[in-house]
Amino acid sequence: MDIENTSDSDSVRGSRRVGFSGPLVSGKRSSRFNDDESYVEITLDVRDDSVLVQNIKGADQESALLASRLEKRPNTLGSQLSFHLRQVSKELKRMTSSNKFHKMDRSKSGAARALRGLQFMNKNVGTEGWSEIETRFDQLAVNGMLPKSLFGQCIGMKESSEFAEELFDALARKRCITSAAVTKAELREFWEQITDTGFDARLQTFFDMVDKDADGRITQEEVKEIISLSASANKLSKIQQNADEYAALIMEELDPDNVGYIELYNLETLLIQAPSHSTNLTTNSRVLSQMLSQKLKPTKERNPIKRCKRRLEYFIEDNWKRIWVMALWLSICAGLFTWKFIQYKRRAVFDVMGYCVSVAKGGAETTKFNMALVLLPVCRNTITWLRSRTKLGKIIPFDDNINFHKVIAFGIAVGVGLHAISHLTCDFPRLLHATDEEYEPMKPFFGEERPNNYWWFVKGTEGWTGVVMVVLMIIAYILAQPWFRRNRLNLPSTIKKLTGFNAFWYSHHLFVIVYVLFIIHGYFLYLSKKWYKKTTWMYIAVPMILYACERLLRAFRSGYKTVRILKVAVYPGNVMAVHMSKPQGFKYTSGQYFFVNCSDVSSFQWHPFTISSAPGDDYLSMHIRTVGDWTSQLKTLFSKVCEPPTGDQSGLLRADIAKADYKPRLPKLLIDGPYGAPAQDYKKYDVVLLVGLGIGATPLISIVKDVLNNIKQQKDIEDGVIESGTKGTKRSPFATKRAYFYWVTREQGSFEWFKGVMDEVSQNDQEGLIELHNYCTSVYEEGDARSALITMLQSIQQAKSGVDIVSGTRVKTHFARPNWRQVFKHVTINHPDQRIGVFYCGPQGLVGELRHLSQDFSHKTGTKFEFHKENF
After folding, report:
1. CATH node for 560-672
2. How does this chain assemble (predicted)?
3. 865 has which bridge partners?
């Protein structure tokens, strides 16, 4: 046996460490160890009152035998060394008696993985050198001393002040610093230790944080404290509440002999042997992965003409549907403007009013066209029918209906501006200042007597209707902007009450008055007297009738499609789930949405919500996040009939109406739908990549459930449980054979929203066709010491019960945000030369990155990604 001291044999002055290397006794090696046989090698750290086993190489039976021989060795080496040997014997017995851990693998891969799990400085803070820290020290120091309360801010841990203070205490204890402040020199020592890239140094620092009494041993109470601290730093309230339970779990795993404490090597074993928590996705071919990375490496074309040509080709390839629709719309607007401009240039009024009248009439003609067209993108029943029952979706971008509605609204604003400004600032003043001879041709239009002042034009029917329309349009335009609709502006409370979704909804319904005035304004014209030349009503008649039928259909359907509330659950994160009965004949596709009306909140307002249940379910469900006044009032109404959950039920409040003996009075809900949405096209793809942020996972959960139901149904058909073609098995063409679902959320409590679905998929998807990935962004990324203990807990709990400690489901939770490029790379390698449907629902911030990655991988690889964004 060889004993090696991990520290230098040349002891530091004042230290009482014992350095020793070599065999315990002189003479030959025991005959038991032949040259061609393996032997036990132990690396020890021998100190004054303790001996730490750093590493063991050799078989378990050899270690056990060695322990028994050490116990029997006579005290010929001195009392101190004999005492040390007895400690080694005790530790070896403990290590060999436990079967819970395999031999510690301190291989390159194992140590590297553990090293990534104990970084006190993340990649952002770690890039800062001592010079930045020194600058902060000079800014924050008081009388040349940095207080403990400002330590986190100084080293870049401002968001984790409690964790930083515990780190400060551990570093101070190591140096016998008792004050609550440090000098610059001491801070430099702290900084060098926490930025040390060695695994042993990081492990010792983490151990010192947990070992508050500095006795070299960690008790269950100390484990509990560090668990609570880590959970608090990562905003994991449930883990913090159950710190006692998880501390006992760690002690059970690392202290099988129940001695009441664990030591440094226990943490090392756990870190090295814990499964990697990395989100780097494995692939079937390392060579293919490297080739793909090289292919995706950005290369800049030196020739500017070729570079622009390539960008143009990519742009046309990605946006050809939008391009031809926009080109057609602009061509029609330009054609109408030019036609009217030339027509009035040839009339007598041109001699008096000049080009102003031509511009005004050209703008008016485009306004008529756009006022008719703007209604079509919001005829939701018509669009749903067209995208579901026809092939027009191949050439028309139905996903962009709301965006096109906004573009047309901008066109209306331009047309109204040209028309109103030309009339008010040019036409009318020129007419007022015309000579009698110039006015003569104008008498059939403006009367025998020339208008004597400007207000003559404004007070007429043509004038006041135009002014009122412009005012109402301005109000609707302003309140429709995201800053007002989503209450993003920090406005005074009195003004803020006039904004929000309700203000947007009501102001948008001013269009009824606008269209009535538009027809009147288009009938009482100065320069057109014959009825067939008053074309305003001709433009808008058909769209208005179509839109009116849409609204009548909504009123009719909602009248007989009443629903009965089955279950209500209020979850963390201001989310409420409502389960309701499915009306007879209500057929929908996953990804679609319906409108909901609650007369107890507002008899007039209808709000859209995605259907979170699957078509095969015998109920309808929706998940609502309370972010506005209407949803807040709805949550208040339902909370009154809810009670705290019992047993293993999830949620903060629940009301299972269908099972309850007492039937409380519930708000009455009306629904109208379903309506088409981008996510409903998932069935067209063999492989789908589903990305949901927060509550945006709702339509994607429905898709996951539908894919699972389809898999189960196909399996039942293959097993002969049910016959193909029988009632209930006839489904629309279903191409999807593989799904990747990525759900990113900020709060641990959010995982309760769809806990049942996650567990159902994990249990029933035996072939692994649905790949689930949960991400909690409140937890610090892998490689951060603030989440190291959470990672350990997760590994132990997952191995023991198969349940993730963060999500409470069988799906393992990843920490921080996904590396989206790695996600796309993973899918590309698994599905070469295939068409992948990418469906995203969530805030606007991620749209650009996902769209860019879809385009980048489609251009540079054989796999084609088609990006679809849900309007959120």
Report:
1. 2.40.30.10
2. Monomer and homodimer.
3. 836
Contact yes or no for 466/420 (Cβ under 8 A): yes
> What digits encode the pLDDT tens for the residues 584-628?
878 888 888 888 888 888 887 888 888 888 888 888 989 888 877
Three-state secondary-structure class, residue 437? helix
What is the Cα–Cα distance from 699 to 613, expressed in whole angstroms? 9
Question: Tokens standing for 841?
Answer: 């629902």
CA–CA distances in Å: residue 666 to residues 540, 598, 599, 635: 42, 11, 11, 12
Q: Which residues of 153-191 are buried (b: 16+ CB within 10 A; e: fewer)?
A: bbbbbeebbebbbbbbbbbbbeeebeeebbeeebbeebb
The residues with which 576 forms a beta bridge, in sequence order, are: 570, 624
Question: Which CATH architecture describes the domain 116-210?
Answer: Orthogonal Bundle (1.10)
**Residue given tokens 């991988």 in the structure block:** 857
* Domain assignments of the chain as residue spans, ordered by start: 116-210, 319-555, 560-672, 677-720+733-777+817-871
Q: Determine if the pTM surpasses 0.85.
A: no
The answer to whether the beta carbons of residues 605 and 693 sit under 8 Å apart is no
Q: pLDDT averaged over consecutive 10-residue blocks of the chain (872 residues)?
A: 40 38 39 45 54 50 47 47 55 47 41 47 54 86 87 79 81 84 87 75 76 78 80 79 82 79 73 50 48 55 77 82 93 94 84 84 92 91 85 86 92 92 83 75 73 77 88 89 75 68 82 91 77 83 91 74 80 83 84 86 84 86 84 84 66 65 75 83 87 87 84 70 53 72 85 80 77 84 70 76 78 85 88 89 86 87 86 57
Q: How many CB atoms lie within 10 A of CB 604?
A: 9
Looking at domain 677-720+733-777+817-871, does it have CATH number 3.40.50.80?
yes
Q: How far is residue 319's CA from residue 397's CA, in Å, rounded to a whole number? A: 9
DSSP readout, 123-189?
HHHHTS-HHHHHHHHHHH-BTTBEEGGGHHHHHT-GGGHHHHHHHHHHHHHHTT--SSEE-HHHHHH
Q: Are 569 and 624 within 8 A, CB to CB?
A: no
**Amino acid found at 804:** D
Q: Tell me if domain 116-210 and domain 677-720+733-777+817-871 are identical in fold.
A: no
